[in-house]
Amino acid sequence: MTAQSDQMPLTSAMWELAGLCWDWYQLPGNDVGGALHVVLDDMNIEDRNLAWCRTESIGVLWTDEGRVPAPPEYVAAATAILDGLAVLDDAQRAMVVHMADVYGPTRPKETTDV
Predict the structure, then answer these.
(1) What digits encode the pLDDT tens for the residues 85-101?
(2) Regions of the chain with pLDDT less than 50
(3) Rounded to an integer, what distance in angstroms lies between the CA atom of residue 108 and that of residue 88?
(4) Where are the domains of the chain?
(5) Rounded to an integer, what distance in angstroms lies between the CA atom of residue 73 and that of residue 79?
(6) Could you please report the per-residue DSSP string of the chain?
(7) pTM of this prediction?
(8) Contacts (Cβ under 8 Å, ≥6 apart) of 37
(9) Hey, what long-range contacts does 7-12 have (CB within 8 A, 24 or more apart)?
(10) How much is the pLDDT for 104?
(11) Contact 49, 38 (CB under 8 A)
C-alpha cells in the first residue's frame, strides 16, 4: 500500500505507530492530544518538538485542577510514540500522524511492507 500523494511506502511499522497514536487519543484526557498535542495535533513533528515533549510534557497531565503527575502507562505510551516517530523522517512522521487521524480504529490488524 502506498500513499496516494507521493507514493511513499507505508510499512507495517508505520501502521503500528499510527495505531499507537490513535490509541493515545483514547486514554482519558487525551482527546485533544494530551501531552503529545504539540506533535500529534499541531503537526510539529521536528526533532526539537519530539525532544520537548519527551523532557517537558509527557510526565504530567493537564487537568481542571492543574498539572498532576502522569500515570506510568501514559508515560510508557507517549515514550513508545516518540521513540517510533524519532526513527522516521519528517515525511514519514507526517504520514503516520495523518494516518492516526484519518484511519483510527479501522486500521488494518496486519499489513505487509511494500
Answers:
(1) 999 999 999 999 998 87
(2) 1-4, 106-114
(3) 20
(4) 33-106
(5) 10
(6) -B-TTT--B--HHHHHHHHHHHHHHHSTT-TT-GGGHHHHTT---SHHHHHHIIIIITTEEEETTEEEEPPHHHHHHHHHHHHHHHTS-HHHHHHHHHHHHHHGGGS-SS----
(7) 0.82
(8) none
(9) 8/91, 8/92, 8/95, 9/113, 9/114, 10/95, 10/99, 10/111, 10/114, 11/111, 11/113, 11/114, 12/110, 12/111, 12/112, 12/113
(10) 57
(11) yes
C-alpha closest to that of 46 among 91, 95, 100, 101:
91
30: its cell numbers: 487525551
Q: What is the rounded distance in angstroms from the CA atom of residue 112 to the CA atom of residue 14?
A: 11
Q: 65: Cβ–Cβ under 8 A, 6 or more apart, which residues?
A: none
